Amino acid sequence: VSQSRYYLYTWYNSVTLTDQWQQIPNLSLSITPKRANSKFRIDVRWFGEVSSAWDVTMGITRNGSIINMPIQEGSRHGCLSMPQQTYVQDDNDSTPEYAFFSTIDSPNTTSTITYDAVFRCYSGTRTIMNGRVFSGTSNGNYEQGSQEIIITEYAA
Predict the structure, then answer these.
(1) Residue 154 parent element (H or E)
(2) Residues 6 or more apart whose Cβ sits within 8 Å of residue 112
(3) Helix or strand or coil: residue 54?
């Protein structure tokens, strides 16, 4: 017995990132487990643009708590993913970043669970565009992309 839920976001928005985990707008989904011992695979596909992408990390929360992070070592910043740059230079106008990441979760409950894709900035603040590059013109040189969250339950 299994089930799957997904949400596809096809527009755009912007967020000011800080040093706190923040929900990636519109990449949130709830599911009610069929069995208490179910496992869940959460897949996230993100598209956007941010300056200094190397300072931004991404993860997944279950009911507001971050899950499946590495053990903290010193001042290193744990994450499941980071925005991947599509150009050799940090072009903060027209070159998008993207991220594909997933994790497996075993929440051991039959209560409804909400999974959120989240991000944060570890150096100051950053404006991040979700779903498009900074330049929002209709010119063909400026990309726009959809984003998606998928939850698949694997019930025994």
Answers:
(1) strand 147-154
(2) 30, 31, 32
(3) helix
